[in-house]
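During the reporting period the student researcher (J.K.) took over the structure-prediction task from the postdoctoral fellow and processed the backlog of single-chain submissions. One of the processed entries is reproduced below for the supervisory committee.
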Amino acid sequence: MAAKSEQTRQRVAETALRMFRDIGFEQTTMRAIAAEAGVSVGNAYYYFASKDELVQELYQQIQSDHAPRAAEALEGIHDLSGRLKATMHAGIDTMAPYHRFGAEFIATAIRPTSPTNPFNPASSDARKAAQQIFVNVVEGAAPAPPRRLRSELPGLLWLAYMGVTLFWVYDTSKDQRRTRILVDGIAPLVARGVSLARIPGVGKILDDATGLASTLRTD
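J.K. obtained the following structure tokens:
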């Protein structure tokens, strides 16, 4: 029975994500999801109390898809700039099918009380999965980033990626070309900034910055 219940939940989720991608968030209703998935409306609400929870499912699915794409893109790349660039481009590729409706998802996720907000406790698992992608970026880098930065750097890189994602949502250039240019420009700047941590005076400033980030960290 548990297996059947999980299969039904998965079918509802997959149907919703496909409809989000094909017709958009606003046009997709719980009733339409239920009809397309072949379940009753009450059954759909049993598994997902609202469309917000289904956007949370989308967020988790994107992290699950981004991780193997990023791992493949990182093969043979060792410098931090190249690794960050490859990972961010892999993320953009993963999100690409949803670009037309990105603003709708952002409007949902931006509310502080929304479970889809990346900083909401309800998003903890997806947030950790996203940050783990950047842990892999840092851990495989050669030369290794300064030890003083390694624990906080993945979280800071993830925050930078959140900024890139917001830019991508509103990027109307063909195939989001401007976002690709942004990524290609940001990655070497970040890598240079990290390398400056080896300089005593600059390193102290970065220590203060990472200390502040640690204090403000959600988890």
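The committee noted the following: DSSP finds eleven helices and no strands in the chain.
J.K. will present the remaining backlog at the next meeting.
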